[in-house]
Write a structure and sequence with these properties.
about 120 residues, mainly alpha, 3 helices
Length: about 120
């Protein structure tokens, strides 16, 4: 009870910002930046590989393999991003990076696959 005999309504307390949350944000950003570089390189490699002629089945296989690995890396990146966003170290826009890489890998596996 308050001194005047009236009860004061309880006001929910806002979460106090953590003093070292910027460290978690920095570490998560660096981890995802490195994962983006690796995944982007693999997906780019999938696009660079083109068959030399109708006999070059190995190039088609390599392109599909690289796109599949890039898609798997994108899924791992999306899961890492989910963990980091859930911990409130990163913002939701970070989901856009693995999604764009996954779309690029899927396009290379389907519509833009090299033909013999």
């Amino acid at each position: 009870m308050s001194p005047g005999g009236r009860s004061t309504p309880s006001v929910p307390q806002a979460r106090q910002p953590r003093s070292f949350s910027w460290v978690g944000t920095g570490v998560c950003a660096v981890v995802l930046a490195l994962a983006t570089l690796v995944t982007g390189y693999v997906v780019l490699t999938a696009y660079v590989v083109e068959p030399d002629g109708p006999w070059d089945e190995q190039a088609v296989t390599d392109s599909g393999f690289a796109a599949g690995i890039g898609l798997a890396f994108s899924v791992v990146m999306a899961l890492l991003t989910w963990v980091f966003v859930k911990a409130e170290w990163l913002r939701r826009w970070w989901y856009a990076i693995p999604v764009m890489l996954a779309v690029g890998a899927l396009l290379r596996l389907t519509l833009l696959a090299p033909e013999l």
